[in-house]
Amino acid sequence: MPRLCALLSSCFLLLNIADAATVPLATLITHGPRTLRRVALTFDADMTPGMEHALQTGKVKSYDNVAVRQILRATHTPATFFFTGMWAEEYPTPARAIAQDPLFEVEDHSYDHPGFEQPCYGLTSIAQAQKAADIEHAQAVIARLTGVTPRYFRFPGGCEQAQDLTLVRGLGLIPVDWDVISGDAGQSDPRVIIRNVLRQTQDGSIIVMHSHGGKAPATALALPAIIAGLKARGFTFVKVADLLNNP
User: Example GO biological process term (predicted)?
Assistant: First the structure.
């Protein structure tokens, strides 16, 4: 789901935050402070009606890439997971285990991954009047299944309008995207993913990857080298809330 934040007029960079109420409503977070050698690995757990159908018909065996979590735990690497509500419903046990693991944090990625702005990489559209309900539905599902209420929201595909940022802020959530595109979506060669991340990452970066497998088949294969490579450059991994000084 690559996109260039710099091309969107609604995209602003924020170096530090205290809480959602103190940040301008039209602000989209793409990175943390550039003064500290800390970065955040983030993983989107997507699920759309089409993906659900692929599961039900047996076209896809699973949209839960267990190996990602195994690697993160084995290397003691903190990470932030952005769940769609539909993914949490499909995988309630892993969802709760992730949420209850102090190494991780769980945030909101919509209910069924629609594109809040069109076109958006083939994602289905959603009416403006339905957007708040979609986000609140995801919030309720994630809270019910995991025991954790998300504080951050990530737009599916990184597609949004200025009014969507205001909407998310109005719901008490902080919109968070990224400044490092791993390119793991649709990429079968882990070397490409590794190169993308190592070349782009700088102080305060938020790295976007995926934890559902499927069309992101090489994420786990690339992850060990990404972790080792960034550690070798002196980076410390933290969760998004810690990166933004908002634990």
Answer: carbohydrate metabolic process
The bridge status of strand 236-237 relative to strand 104-108 is: unpaired
In the structure encoding, which two tokens stand for residue 201, read together? 């990452």
| Whether pLDDT at 1 is above 80 | no
Q: Which range is least confidently modeled, 24-38, 93-107, 146-160, 195-209?
A: 24-38
- The pTM assigned to this predicted structure is 0.90
- The full set of domains in the chain, from first to last, is 5-243 (3.20.20.370)
d(CA 109, CA 56): 22
Side chain identity at 90, as an amino acid letter? Answer: E
Residue appearing with tokens 């530090």: 16
Write out the chain in H/E/C secondary structure: CCCCHHHCCCCCCCCCCCCHHHCCCCCCECECCCCCCEEEEEEEECCCHHHHHHHHCCCCCCCCCHHHHHHHHHCCCCEEEEECHHHHHHCHHHHHHHHHCCCEEEEECCCCCCECCCCCCCCCECCHHHHHHHHHHHHHHHHHHHCCCCCEECCHHHCCCHHHHHHHHHCCCEEECCCEECCCCCCCCHHHHHHHHHHHCCCCEEEEEECCCCCCCCHHHHHHHHHHHHHHCCCEECCHHHHCCCC
Cα separation of 89 and 204, whole Å?
A: 32
Return the structure tokens found at 174. Answer: 């902080």
Instruction: State residue 165 phi and psi, 5-degree precision.
Output: -65, -45
Averaged pLDDT score across all residues of the chain = 91
Contact (CB, 8 A) for 170 and 25: yes
